[in-house]
């Protein structure tokens, strides 16, 4: 008896010890779980608004997977050994309940569906364990009592799941769920065989999950409340992130960011400048007194309305335009708001590229649209009329350069410095031909004329060396400018430093060899010819044989050019002797004339710029002695000479170049020594597309009269 | 070539932020909404990197308090950023609703006092607030 009693006692003690041990283990495990919970899924994390609901869901999923995966690896997979065995009908039941509840609370449909899924995932976990532990843990004697005790706690889990669909009272209705659970678990024979440890684990997981889900729900409620309350501008939902210095630096150094800034700041500047030009919200009923905007100050001119000239914009850039002179100007034919300006080098900035071309936009006043560079001063540049993206330039080094607005600032193609091609400065360049067959023609001051194709600048397609005919002192034809007539791309005029203008042929032809046509010479200028311009002749009467030349001998001259084929025969002079052609009109000016250009639309209008810094617009039908208009660029942007007092004399205001906008003929760009590009708009009488037939016939009559009165008509000044 | 260094990029931004009439500029990252650059705005939290602030235009400095600004004279960059963010989201929704394949390229919003120019790009968003010409 004693011994049996003792035995019993020992047994009880052992059991107690075992129990205690189990309890301790359970405590430990719970602690571990708890710490894990706080580590991974702290409420803070959940409450933090994340960009999208999908993220939250993913977080929770992964968290649950973590928990279950940790405690029982591999059991979360739906395809685990226990697959398909309905060990816990609860989950199925609750799932159906949930789905029915879903319809009651549509706003949270998606969320509850999600919770639902978690429940199912959870239910699979114990199933797997059941299967695995079937064999070895059935005999533990303590389980049955303890198991029952545990079952009650399982109910709380069930509550959680069930209430999750019913949002506000989370603990509200537990009975239904617990009933089903109670009904279910004790009767299931498998459940009784679950080891205590398993149950503990399972229960822990459930408790954890319950906590998680509740938190999730609360977070979701919070979020949805937020969203409802402040649909717009909910700062809680705004994904803020502070960039560290390193991140900032990384962003700023990225090519992408540079491109973005380049693009966006251009847009912003255009937006700003557009606003300045005209306010689309203007209400004329309110203001209504800014009628006299036609102010007659500096930069604009008075006179009859149609003959006015108004300054539109001035372009100058502190960084690049400084101390450079404008060497050429040109409008884009495709985008008439774009003006290119080529510049000489800045003598005080040896590290900057010598050559510079800036493309200005009339809608963006303070900053060039594009900047292109070259290693040598650019002396001439123009947009290719056939490829709107291409800009062709001639350099002091003798190179012909090609830039592309789609590429970077360095030229995409250039001719070699040595060998074939030019070895002297290229002052004049033209693109002749048609859309499909065009050539770049360039000329240098040593008398070399080259023809290039746009696709290949490595060597010239044509090479022609002009030789001065006998009376000249030197052999070289020091060309300063060339001009092609509209009708014939094989024939051109070349203006020289001596002041003589030679007619030239690109190719051998009947009665003339390629090169300078020795049968005619246009003499009249006493100093270097600065510009030559054929009449654009697009009207009723062909005036394409009229040429305008300007020179630093203070004059502009009008010539009637002999047709190239007829030069030798028409006037009966003997072969070989040179006919000297005189200008039909000589207009003396008060200063050096640097450039003179026909209006592209009005047959009788031309513009000139001079060393005194004025732009003059002439209409030879109205007057051949006095310009219609004379204006000077305003001094808003005084460019390189900003620091000097005004009225310093000639040099600082001198204008070198002028260019007409070719499509409408309303705008004229001028530029000069100070590096400032100024764009003027001329009145309807001096520009625009509308021309009357009398204007054309008037020019014709004038030319006939001038020819009749003698070779030269000096206007007496 | 000329525009590719970070320095040049920065000077472009400084330029625009100092143009007359420009009150503030802001660059946000498109995906996170993080503030990359600001000018003319103060940041009241630590959300903005202090280094990201550019010099603002001088004329909008102290004497323009009344012009659509809060008591402190400046609006906080975060407020503007989040407001613009949600505005852009709404605009995006609108465009999406009209045509799935379309996207927002530029937003100009005129108010009585200011104009906002918002230019979204694939990676960044540029925001400029400037004085509207007195109409």
TrEMBL record, chain A:
Keywords, comma-separated and alphabetical: Cytoplasm, Repeat, WD repeat
> Has UniProt tagged this entry with the keyword Repeat?
yes
Gene Ontology MF, one: dynein light chain binding
Q: Which residues cross the membrane?
A: none
Gene3D superfamilies of this UniProt entry?
YVTN repeat-like/Quinoprotein amine dehydrogenase
Sequence segments annotated as region (Disordered): 1-112, 134-204
Record's compositionally biased regions (Basic and acidic residues) = 7-33
Q: Does the keyword Repeat apply?
A: yes
UniProt-annotated location(s) = Cytoplasm
What residue spans do the WD repeats cover?
522-569
Compositional bias segments (type: Polar residues): 34-51, 91-103
Tell me a GO cellular component: cytoplasmic dynein complex
One GO biological process this protein is involved in is: transport along microtubule
Q: Where is this chain compositionally biased, Low complexity type? A: 71-89
PANTHER family the UniProt entry points to: CYTOPLASMIC DYNEIN 1 INTERMEDIATE CHAIN-RELATED, DYNEIN INTERMEDIATE CHAIN
Query: What is this protein's name?
Result: WD40 repeat-like protein
In its UniProt entry, the species of origin is given as Pleomassaria siparia CBS 279.74
The uppermost taxa in this organism's lineage are: Eukaryota, Fungi, Dikarya, Ascomycota, Pezizomycotina
TrEMBL record, chain B:
Which InterPro entries does the entry link to?
Roadblock/LAMTOR2_dom (IPR004942)
Task: List the transmembrane segments.
Answer: none
Task: Please report which protein family the annotation says this sequence is part of.
Answer: Belongs to the GAMAD family.
SUPFAM superfamilies assigned = Roadblock/LC7 domain
Q: Where do the record's region annotations for Disordered lie?
A: 42-73
SMART domains reported for this sequence:
Robl_LC7 (SM00960)
Name of the protein = Roadblock/LAMTOR2 domain-containing protein
